[in-house]
Amino acid sequence: MSSGRKEIQRARMWRYFLDAATEVIEKEGINHVTIRKIAEKAGYTSSTAYNYFRDLSHLKFFAAMRFTKGYTDELPVYLEKGKNTVEKWLYSWECFCRHSFEQPKIYSVIFMDNLGSVPEELLDDYYKIYRDDLIGLPEQIKLIIMEHSFSKRSALYIENAVDEGLIEKKDIDFIADTTLMIWKGMMNTVMNQRRKYTTEEAIKRTLYYVYESVIRVVNPDKREEIEFLPGRKIED
Fold first, then answer.
1. Are 182 and 213 in contact (CB under 8 A)?
2. What's the rounded Cα separation, in Å, for the pair 234 and 236?
3. What does the pLDDT look like over 188-201, one tens digit per residue?
4. Burial of 203 (0-12, 13-18, 19+ CB in 10 A)
5. Which alpha helices (H) appear in the chain, and where do they start and end?
6. CB–CB of 63/30 below 8 Å?
7. pLDDT at position 148 over 80
């Protein structure tokens, strides 16, 4: 079989298994996804599934990716709300928080679980099969989505704020890493029910902490240019 035909066969089999996984997630939740259950629903054996997915974590990762299309579809709309790079970046955080806290188990699988391999490679494989998910997105947003590492994604986008005189280059990694830790901390708190936050409370608190972390390193002379209302206050 030629390499081209093998790739077509691989894409076809992926779709069979991921269609089955998607159905299980929609009906039972991602915690109920098993290789055996997915293989049986797709009409194949577990051993066949392992020919295309290394283990259950990989199958769950790819299946979960299907549930992020709402986020990628809305991201350009949120970015348009900002007048400068810092505002756009903060609005992108609002978009991400709204989708991730509404589907915490899905986003935890993608961004927090141990996958046992390089996430960037998995994400690249996903978009080779599902190219349509990227159609229509601006090139800059494609880069953000394809860069799996959260801190790298943040740094990649917010770099333009240096040219705008809003922040200094030395602060980029601090902002990217700090805001990632804020989101992960709140996501862990929500999933483990350490505090009884509603989804909206979790979103608001995360955006407040993200905003406060960022505004501290923004050029004092330009802070008034950052108008991001969702992160301005928090209810105790």
1. yes
2. 6
3. 999 988 788 999 99
4. buried
5. 3-28, 35-42, 46-50, 56-65, 69-79, 85-102, 104-111, 119-129, 139-146, 150-158, 160-163, 172-191, 199-215
6. yes
7. no
